């Protein structure tokens, strides 16, 4: 699993199994898609230095994931879809956050009221968020 490049985890059950205890996180992973309730993003995700694309859907994350994800040096595409995040605010904490991000989609996140830092110079590659809360 260490040499895995792309991973999609989905579940017919409401909740994905606990991913925190993954013995050997796939360090060469470039694309990751997690579909279903996670509640909390596994801490090893922030160590995926080669990750270029991350899609989260139906995850129901309660904590702001931007502080963890903005440090991923090669992340170019980030999609938070269909209740991936159920909090009210997402905030870039660092002006150097998301150094390579080119595409940010925030779709069907009905509780989201504000995304801070996105308009204030964070994301040097100027990813313009596509927001929709239908």
Automatic annotation (TrEMBL):
Record key words, sorted: Repeat
Question: Coiled coil: which residue ranges?
Answer: none
| Keyword check for Zinc | no
| Recorded superkingdom | Eukaryota
Q: Where is the Disease resistance R13L4/SHOC-2-like LRR domain?
A: 1-124
* Pfam families with a match to the protein in the record: LRR_14
Q: Which InterPro entries match?
A: LRR_dom_sf, LRR_R13L4/SHOC2-like
What is the protein's given name?
Disease resistance R13L4/SHOC-2-like LRR domain-containing protein
Lineage of source species: Eukaryota, Viridiplantae, Streptophyta, Embryophyta, Tracheophyta
